[in-house]
From TrEMBL:
Protein localization: Cytoplasm
SUPFAM superfamilies for the chain: Folate-binding domain (SSF103025), P-loop containing nucleoside triphosphate hydrolases (SSF52540), TrmE connector domain (SSF116878)
Protein name (Swiss-Prot/TrEMBL): tRNA modification GTPase MnmE
Main location: cytoplasm
InterPro entries in the cross-refs: G_TrmE, GTP-bd, GTP-bd_TrmE_N, GTPase_MnmE, MnmE_dom2, MnmE_helical, P-loop_NTPase, Small_GTP-bd
Cofactor(s) the protein requires to work: K(+)
Entry EC number(s): 3.6.-.-
Length: 445
């Protein structure tokens, strides 16, 4: 990590739109001095974490606004550096004026996306999983995503990674000890095989949560599909709570894939209404059906809506349409279907009357989640999953090597697993990886 003189960075921490309050944030050695230039009434040695009511002035000393001045003394700040926050009124033009004033100082430059958080990480104020949880929290658009990110922020994932990392490091040290000082360390590798196996199981358990992490972070995608006129759009409108999709008795009403965002039990879901499937459609309808097939291959769950007249053979055909995607089968228009028409285990719903719709919601959630609440999940991201996967692979090789190969190989693989895990917590990361991670932050965070 670089040892160039640390610059002071500045950015607006609030959105560039009119709001009640707008925050200008400074971090770095010159933060206090530069911040005080805008708020000269603040004492030269302000009390840290004290809110000073101050006038913010332009270069000529004319008042631009009045607001709060907060000072956080290094290292007890978000970034670990000197930090000043000016809370002004939330006028975008006013805030740009204030920002331009602090940037006039040559020691100050605009912050890059995520740079405040990046500095917090580099200064040891938080590990990487927590820094990433900050970005998750800002991006969260469902209750489950907020809660999972908050859990990440409080260190749930970090703790679990540490619980893997620490014993793995011990194991590595033991094996290395036996290799380097065979006499002194004799026997320290006796249970190495069992320890590798236990750690592998643990790492695999965390990896298995990656899919749930993605569901929470991005929301699940669920498509309604089935033959034409089955009542998909009517059911879609019922689930969404408004008349989004056109409904008509003419088969082939829906042509494009329609999307709507809903939140069930705190979990964000994107529902898709699709063009009904049938043989020999018209030209435009055929394009719609192609889109249905495309959508089906990319969703987490497909809900097959069957009309009352569908035969079992037809149902089988429609089931196959979903390919590898999981399918939940429901019998539609149950208000007009005879009881006997549906299979016993089948969910019976009616978009028209709303019958069975609550049960459908529950069934969709339990198919996506199995048991447990979406809010209790640790947010394992794609990046974490990738690192965990490599750790698992190395551990699996170490386990295999235990029986057939030398201790050097075991040690090497355990070392690789450690390195991969270090990418999750941030104990071993490259600048390039940090760039990639912090790019998804917004400026001012
Ligand atoms: N009785 C009854 N009629 C329904 C129900 N749902 C839909 N309908 C009627 O069935 C016809 C087709 O409904 P849609 O919701 O457009 O069906 P769809 O599956 O989206 O049809 P396509 O888009 O053409 O594939 C309309 O006339 C609806 O009023 C229901 O639950 N009960
Ligand atoms: Mg439709």
């Amino acid at each position: 990590m670089s040892h160039a003189p640390v610059s002071t960075i500045a950015a607006l921490a609030t959105a560039p739109a009119a709001g009640a309050v707008g925050i200008l944030r400074l971090s770095g050695p010159a933060a206090l001095e530069v911040g005080r230039r805008l708020a000269p009434s603040v004492p030269a040695e302000p009390t840290p974490r004290h809110a000073y009511l101050a006038s913010f002035v332009d270069a000529e000393g004319r008042t631009l606004d009045e607001g709060l001045f907060l000072y956080f003394r290094a290292p007890a700040s978000f970034t670990g550096e000197e930090v000043v926050e000016l809370q002004a009124h939330g006028g975008p033009r006013l805030l740009r004026l204030l920002l331009a004033r602090v940037l006039e100082d040559e020691r100050v430059r605009p912050a890059r996306p995520g740079e405040f958080t990046r500095r917090a990480f580099l200064n040891g104020r938080m590990d990487l999983t927590r820094a990433e949880a900050v970005a998750d929290l800002v991006a969260a658009d469902s209750e489950a995503a907020v809660r999972a990110a908050a859990a990440g922020l409080s260190g749930v994932l970090a703790e679990r990674v540490r619980a893997l990392e620490a014993p793995l490091r011990d194991l590595h040290a033991d094996v290395e000890g036996v290799l380097n000082f065979p006499d002194e360390a004799e026997g320290a590798d006796a249970d190495a095989g069992a320890r590798v196996a236990a750690l592998l199981t643990q790492a695999q358990g965390m990896l298995a949560e990656a899919a749930r992490g993605r569901l929470v972070r991005q929301g699940a995608r669920v498509a309604l599909y089935g033959p034409v006129n089955a009542g998909k759009s009517t059911l879609f409108n019922r689930l969404v709570g408004e008349a989004r999709a056109l409904v008509d008795e003419e088969p082939g009403t829906t042509r494009d894939v329609l999307e709507a965002r809903v939140e069930w039990e705190g979990l964000g879901l994107t529902l898709l209404d699709t063009a009904g499937l049938r043989e020999a459609p018209g030209r435009v309808e055929a394009l719609g059906i192609a889109r249905t097939r495309e959508a089906l291959s990319a969703v987490d769950l497909a809900v097959l809506v069957l009309p009352p007249e569908a035969s079992e053979a037809e149902a089988e055909t429609w089931l196959r349409e979903a390919g590898a995607t999981a399918v939940l089968r429901v019998a539609g228009k149950c208000d007009v279907a005879s009881e006997a028409a549906a299979r016993e285990s089948e969910l019976r719903v009616s978009g028209r009357t709303g019958a069975g719709v609550e049960a459908l919601r529950t069934a969709v959630l339990s198919r996506l989640w199995g048991s447990g609440a979406p809010t209790a999940v640790a947010l394992v991201s794609e990046r974490h999953a990738d690192a965990l996967r490599r750790a698992c692979e190395a551990l699996a090789r170490a386990e295999a090597a235990r029986h057939v190969s030398t201790l050097e190989v075991v040690s090497g693989e355990v070392g690789l697993a450690l390195e991969a895990l270090g990418e999750v917590s941030g104990t071993s990361v490259s600048e390039a990886l940090l760039d990639a991670i912090f790019q998804r932050f917004c400026i001012g965070k």
